[in-house]
Amino acid sequence: MRGTVVVVDDETKIRSLVRSHLERDGYTVLEAGTGARALELARVADLMILDLRLPDRAGEDVARELRAAGGLPIIMLTAKADEAQRIAGLRVGADDYVTKPFSLAELAARVDAVLRRTRGEAARTEPASFGGGMLRLDAERREVSVGDRDVDLTRAEFELLSTLSARPGRVWSRTELLSRLSGEHESSERTVDAHVKNLRRKLGDRSGQPQLVATVPGVGYKLAVERDG
Fold first, then answer.
1. How far apart are CA 133 and CA 138, in angstroms?
2. Burial (CB count <10 Å: 0-12, 13-18, 19+), residue 120
3. Cβ atoms of 225 and 128 closer than 8 Å
4. Sequence-ordered list of residues with C-beta below 8 angstroms from that of 102, at least 6 positions apart, any chain
């Protein structure tokens, strides 16, 4: 699975065309016809294709909220083709801009490019701290600590924690997490549960106490503490 994309447009036909094309490319695609629905789906998305003209609110306002909540990659989709509108979209947080009418192949290529760039940037980030210093993760050194205690994780456990910590609060399905475990693509979703159980034990999560890695019933898992700073 290459990732989850939310297509936000008030025209059902456009959403359907984009969805069909991206699904053929291996993406999971969700649809939203309003800004409110777009914000609901953002928590399970890797990227959003966002139309500026929505029935309930301006797409620029949706982009501002997404940026304030943690920076989901956004490709603006609109019929407004003038330079001023493109600049305005970029200033409120768009990573790229596509104008209608558009080529589905070009849009898919831009989705690929934005995700490669943003995932690459995330991999090169400085050591991150979460929950007021409760959890610290250094992706480049592959080091994790909880409080003043270093935590030794397996490759799979580290990959899971890195994925969850890239978007604190974002809910990841077991299928999505499984796809990010290199070398385990033929395993079952129970493999994810087993790795999460071991990860929690090593992080010190205990029953009845606030957990770093939380279960979202019927969906999957999320990192339950916010990134510091």
1. 13
2. exposed
3. no
4. 77
Decide if domain 128-223 falls under CATH 1.10.10.10: yes
E strand or H helix at 222, and its extent?
A: strand 220-223
pLDDT in tens, 145-195: 998 899 999 888 988 998 898 888 888 888 878 877 755 444 577 888 999
pTM, entire model: 0.60
Domain boundaries, the chain: 4-123, 128-223
**What residue ranges of the chain have pLDDT lower than 50?**
184-186
Tell me the C-alpha distance between 111 and 28, whole Å: 12
CATH node for 4-123: 3.40.50.2300
Q: At 146, list the tokens.
A: 């909880």
